[in-house]
């Protein structure tokens, strides 16, 4: 992918469907300068000054490292993924847009190098991840405010730490916030091999929930099915199978799901709704098909189905401590 060739010396293996970008990052205050330094700096970053096609608007630049003040933390980035939201943000069609010019990347993990005299929550050697999106993780190192960071254990896999802040959190909140699910209950989801989808499978399995995982048909379907089942998936079906009348027999043995998680939209989301139990909820958190969610009147009236949306960034705003 374009960003790896520009910034990385090495590649870390992908986790939860994402490509990883080792080493990257720097500071994000609105007043920060993103102009290239006169002399080549240790800090390299992928910067965009305008919204548009990432391959055209993102440039590799050398940045000056800000001085470490009282509440500042100097961080060396260890890994940063390329998430679809990163691309959408650069394109300018995401719900949250940083002030331009900006450094790309919303996720990642770094190691603390040094801290200011007023820092109490982190120390050199700690691993940290962004507290909120828009920090700009595609850089080799940076100086951040302590409040912009969250510490994570350093004994977990690097790839897990780098992708911990968005997909697993999204999966967890959707599983607990919309329906009161108990062990043995079923959920159904599309895009099951996505980062969120794989996190849903693992968290649901740990909570005793049964997952019905929908995939598009593909040449390596069996290999992917086996991988998802190794993560804890109970059932894996294709979009085509979900539309067949035989699914009625399937739901004689498997409880109808009370929760559907939609990341695709279009016909795929319509099929999820068709198989929801009466009174169930479909939560939409993405729209990969770029098609609207269509619900029939009968589903809304006679089955009393609920349509909800979820965006982790908004959830964080709604649940942030009052200062």
From TrEMBL:
Domain Enoyl reductase (ER): 60-320
Name of the top EC class for this enzyme: oxidoreductase
Major location category of this protein: mitochondrion
Signal peptide: none
Top-level lineage group: Eukaryota
Record's keyword annotation contains Magnesium: no
Pfam families found in the cross-reference section: ADH_N (PF08240), ADH_zinc_N (PF00107)
Localization terms from the record: Mitochondrion
Family statement: Belongs to the zinc-containing alcohol dehydrogenase family. Quinone oxidoreductase subfamily.
Protein name as annotated: Enoyl-[acyl-carrier-protein] reductase, mitochondrial
Source species: Bos indicus
């Amino acid at each position: 992918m374009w960003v790896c060739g520009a910034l990385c010396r090495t590649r870390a293996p992908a986790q939860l469907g994402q490509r990883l970008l080792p080493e990257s990052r720097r500071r994000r205050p609105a007043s920060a300068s993103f102009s290239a330094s006169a002399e080549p700096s240790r800090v390299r970053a992928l910067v965009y000054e305008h919204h548009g096609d990432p391959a055209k608007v993102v440039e590799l630049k050398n940045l000056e490292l800000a001085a470490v003040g009282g509440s500042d933390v100097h961080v060396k980035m260890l890994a940063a993924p390329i998430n679809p939201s990163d691309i959408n943000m650069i394109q300018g069609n995401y719900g949250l847009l940083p002030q331009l010019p900006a450094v790309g990347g919303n996720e990642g993990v770094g190691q603390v190098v040094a801290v200011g005299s007023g820092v109490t929550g982190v120390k050199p050697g700690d691993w940290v991840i962004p507290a909120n999106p828009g920090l700009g993780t595609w850089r080799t190192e940076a100086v951040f405010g302590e409040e912009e960071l969250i510490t994570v254990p350093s004994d977990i896999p690097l790839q897990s730490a780098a992708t911990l802040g968005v997909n697993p959190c999204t999966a967890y909140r959707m599983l607990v916030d919309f329906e009161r699910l108990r062990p043995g209950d079923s959920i159904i989801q599309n895009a099951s091999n996505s980062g969120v989808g794989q996190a849903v499978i693992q968290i649901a399995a740990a909570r005793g929930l049964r997952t019905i995982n929908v995939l598009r048909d593909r040449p390596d379907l069996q290999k992917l099915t086996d991988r998802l089942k190794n993560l804890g998936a109970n059932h894996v079906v294709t979009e085509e199978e979900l539309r067949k009348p035989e699914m009625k027999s399937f739901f004689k043995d498997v409880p109808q799901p009370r929760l559907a998680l939609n990341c695709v939209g279009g016909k795929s989301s319509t099929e999820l709704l068709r198989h929801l139990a009466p009174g169930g909820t479909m939560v939409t958190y993405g729209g990969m098909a770029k098609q609207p969610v269509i619900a029939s009147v009968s589903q809304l009236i006679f089955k009393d189905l609920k349509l909800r949306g979820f965006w982790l960034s908004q959830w964080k705003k709604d649940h942030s401590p009052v200062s």
